[in-house]
Amino acid sequence: MGIQGHDAHNTKRLEVKAARPGFVDTRFHIAAENLNRAQTLHGGMVSTLIDSVGSLAVASKGWFNTGISTDLHATFVKPAGKEGDTIRVTGEVIGMGKTLAYTRVELRHSTTNQLLGTCTPLTAAYGSHTKYIRMGRDSPHNREFNEDGEHVQ
């Protein structure tokens, strides 16, 4: 039996292109099921990407259990894409303490590299994601990586 649930269904077209501790670079291929009535990427899907890619950024630091969302914020400024488009979604851990991790996620059009995800006139959406991580801190499945993310310490 494969992985099931929200992420498995909604992020099946999400590809991780690169990662290092605290940062992930992904691509999301927009399909018809991801669209709103205006035929552009649905805001709920943008929120899902902020959640999932923010969690992947935490996981890239070696965390097996990436915690529980306590706050997720998305700002929508312009359409992020339509069916058939690919968007670049990057996630970065901007702070991590004993109980909370803070991430920032940006969305860009992957062909033009037009920024879709920070507060500029070209913005489509950007977000932040806070996670309660205490229960995962001592997991035996956690790993530590060197800065390039290639070697386990």
Structural commentary:
There is one protein chain. By secondary structure, the protein is an alpha+beta fold. It contains 2 helices and 6 strands, in the order H-E-E-H-E-E-E-E. The longest helix is centred in the middle third of the chain and has 17 residues, at 43-59. Mean pLDDT is 83; it is low at 117-123.
Distance between the termini: 32 Å
What structural class should be given to the helix and strand makeup? alpha+beta
* CATH top level assignment: Alpha Beta
Strand arrangement in the largest pleated sheet: 1-2-4-5-6-3
The biggest beta sheet is recorded as: 6 strands, antiparallel
Assign the CATH architecture.
Answer: Roll
Count of DSSP E strands?
A: 6
CATH topology descriptor: Thiol Ester Dehydrase, Chain A
Proportion of β residues? 25-35%
Number of domains: 1
Gyration radius (Cα, Å) is 15 Å
Low-confidence runs: 117-123
Order of helices and strands: HEEHEEEE
- What general outline do the C-alpha atoms trace? globular
Average pLDDT rating? 83
Tally the helices. Answer: 2
Report the CATH superfamily.
Answer: Hotdog Thioesterase
Could you estimate the helical fraction of the residues in percent? 10-25%
Features:
2 helices; globular; alpha+beta; 153 residues
Task: Outline the fold blueprint.
Elements: H1 6-10, E1 14-20, E2 23-29, H2 43-59, E3 68-76, E4 86-96, E5 100-109, E6 125-132
Please give a quick description of this structure.
The chain is α+β, with helices and mostly antiparallel strands and 153 residues long. It has one domain: Thiol Ester Dehydrase, Chain A, CATH 3.10.129.
